[in-house]
Amino acid sequence: MQSEDPILICGFALGVLEGPSIPAPRYTARMTDRALTILKETFGHGAFRGAQRAIIDTLVAGRDCIVLMPTGGGKSLCYQVPSLLREGVGIVVSPLIALMQDQVVALRELGVRAACLNSTLSPAEQRAVYTALANGALDLLYVAPERILQDDTLERLTQIRVALIAIDEAHCVSQWGHDFRADYLGLHRLRERFPGVPWIALTATADARTREEIAARLELDAPQWFISSFDRPNIRYTVEVKSDPRRQLRRFLDDFRGQAGIVYCMSRAKVEETAAWLVDEGYTALPYHAGLTAELREAHQSRFQREDGVIVVATIAFGMGIDKPDVRFVAHLDLPKSIEAYYQETGRAGRDGEPAQAWMIYGLQDVVRLRQMVDESPADEQRKRLERHKLDALLGWCEMTECRRRALLAYFGDALEAPCGNCDNCLHPPLTWDATEAARQLLSCVYRTGQRFGAAHVVDVLLGKATEKVRQYRHDTLSTFGLGAERSVEQWRSVIRQCVVRGLLRADVERYGALTLTEASRPLLRGETTLWLREDPAAAVRRAKRATPAASAPSSLLWEALRACRKRLADEHGVPPYVIFHDATLVAMAAARPSSADDLLSLPGVGQAKLARYGDAFLQVLREAG
Ligand code: ADP
Ligand code: ZN
């Protein structure tokens, strides 16, 4: 139940291993033993996960690395530990100021001498950081990319000893990616300023093109690649067809009372409405989007981090800087832009390795709207082609009937041997049906009504409903009128959606969603091909089994007392509760009921600094609980 290495490693080299020969450092063995000591004493973890140790050894030996690891995989330790092992200061370039600050706070709690340099510092604070740097009083320095490239920053940094340079969120160098940051393109200039200093580039975005761009643009020196499996086995993926979004969301959230999560919506207005509605439903829900003032955004983000059980309703802007380990669900009320974006957004759930859910609803409207957004974007044709391709991959993923995790991983170049058993399709295998005849009826109805009408009217004609509009256009005289009366509205809508996703029909946004035929629909109309479609299950049947996270399961008095103690300490120290101890540590504490400092130290997540700071308070709670 503790985060016992769920991460599979297939660390392999991609033919770029022949770097200049680096003399094998004689101190490596001793250093890595020290690595384990630091892991235990400072970070309170019992063992390295996956490739962490190999990465640390590589950096300590002075060699560049590229690390591809999913969110929650444990990237930070890969540069934090070597920064403590190597002489000098570890410099971490990070684009996310909020995240940077959280990391610094968490590190200081662990007794690590960390600071950051970014635009939020006052001149006095900045001077203090420079003084600490010059006095050798820092182990780690987090710097914003635009900041590190400034002459005065460089000037100061070149006067000190640098242990390593870590480039976090390294995919920001990719102009094709969704997080491109122009400053990242200048980072390679640091190479000549800090000769002989090993670099580590880290990202959770893994498509092949981005990988190569990272190595090339940062001008890494024959880097060693570490590619972890992108699987997040603790996250359950579920996709439902949108029918009644609020009812569907309410049902989904029923399993998560008192737990933290993120609900993503496409527009600001919808974010606001949804958050207000959730508050009416008795949840603590806060909106987050680019239209709010910076102060309000920060306040909401900070409540999300610090309070238990807050739901943030956000446009996709939210979450970049979120390092909260106990996010139990991510719900999408609208489709994200691509599989990469989806994976990144859902990856914010369950970083602590405990069960979490990624849930999404989507419908024909989403398909139409997203296609329109791509078509209308100011990007050039090449870029639009790429975006269309990415959107189609996502839509195909939504409609698929086999294991979703396997497909996700395959998209990132990872193979999963067997179906996962923890996605909706594995848990409730969907049925498929021969929709050839139905699709032909639909296509010919679209054709006969003149390819000028949207889904609602076409369905009315198929069902044989003599609405006013049907009579007005005399569509009740068509041969397709009432041809599909034996199917329900939902079934027809499902066929239409799937035909649009497969490119058999186009929904013309310019003309209010009018359905038109495409080249691809000809063979089907002529009876040359067959078509099998997914049967949309009634949403209620699809209710996934309750996935109560183990970490929050204990509801004993002791558990509540431990949580209360953590919250009190967190407030006193001005940090989020999980910075004091993760849920997993409290769970272990409630189970093992340690009575001495030594016993406490053997629990996951308890290191020397935290023992010294909080040990007594928790031991007292444990004693009082008898
Ligand atoms: P990433 O940056 O890859 O998203 P983090 O570095 O934030 O991941 O780590 C994710 C979580 O895993 C953190 O809560 C961290 O404390 C935990 N973690 C990392 N390494 C280990 C380890 N070796 N043993 C136990 N927990 C770990
Ligand atoms: Zn599966």
Walk me through this protein's architecture:
With 626 residues, the chain is α/β, with parallel strands linked by helices. Helices cover 43% and strands 13% of the residues. It has 27 helices and 17 strands. The strands form 4 sheets. A 7-stranded parallel β-sheet has the order 3-4-2-5-6-1-7, with helices on both faces. The longest helix is centred in the middle third of the chain and has 19 residues, at 381-399. It starts with 27 loop residues before the first helix and ends with a helix. The model is unreliable at 1-29 and 539-553 (pLDDT under 50). Adenosine-5'-diphosphate binds at residues 3, 45, 48-49, 52, 69, 71-77, 323, 325, 351-352.
Strand order of the largest sheet: 3-4-2-5-6-1-7
Shape: globular
Count of strand segments: 17
Q: For the terminal residues, how far apart are their CA atoms?
A: 25 Å
Number of distinct helices: 27
Bound molecules: adenosine-5'-diphosphate, zinc ion
Overall mean pLDDT stands at: 87
Low-confidence stretches: 1-29, 539-553
Report the sheet-strand fraction.
5-15%
What summary fits the major beta sheet? 7 strands, parallel
What proportion of the residues is helical, as a percent range? 40-55%
Return Rg in Å.
27 Å
Question: Which class of secondary structure composition applies to the elements?
Answer: alpha/beta
